[in-house]
Design brief:
It is built from no helices and eleven strands. It is mainly beta and 123 residues long. Strands 2, 4, 5, 6, 9, 10 and 11 form a seven-stranded mixed β-sheet that branches. The protein has a four-stranded antiparallel β-sheet with strand order 1-3-8-7, with no helix packed on it. Strand 7 and strand 8 form a beta hairpin.
């Protein structure tokens, strides 16, 4: 069971990035998927999550209206579209899978984690 986050990079404030979370060894269809981030010196925090059906989406207040989570089960991939990025969004972003379809943004609720992808937003 592996998750791989990708799509990070360096972008100027106001720019956009799309992160991808791809799975290997299992099918994402049956998992709630969450995106988390960890900035230097800070705790890991929930950014967004999407339920198994895709019908429930949740966002941290800090990203509402700017980030959009989606899933493409045919491609076994979940995306995080990030627009209007600010330097405060700079962090390592992780995706994670939760076997329970509860759709929370609590770090402890997630069972599988991928390696992160670094997002750096310059001012």
């Amino acid at each position: 069971v592996q998750l791989q986050a990708s799509g990070g990079g360096l972008v100027q404030a106001g720019g956009s990035l799309r992160l991808s979370c791809a799975a290997s060894g299992f099918t994402l269809d049956y998992y709630t998927i969450g995106w988390f981030r960890q900035a230097p010196g800070k705790e890991r925090e929930g950014v967004s999550c999407i339920s198994v059906s895709g019908g429930r989406l949740y966002y941290a207040d800090s990203v509402k209206g700017r980030f959009t989570i989606s899933r493409d089960n045919a491609k076994n991939t979940v995306y995080l579209q990030m627009n209007s990025l600010t330097p405060e969004d700079t962090a390592v972003y992780y995706c994670a899978a939760d076997t329970w379809d509860v759709a929370t943004m609590e770090v402890g609720d997630y069972d599988y984690w991928g390696q992160g992808t670094l997002v750096t937003v310059s001012s």
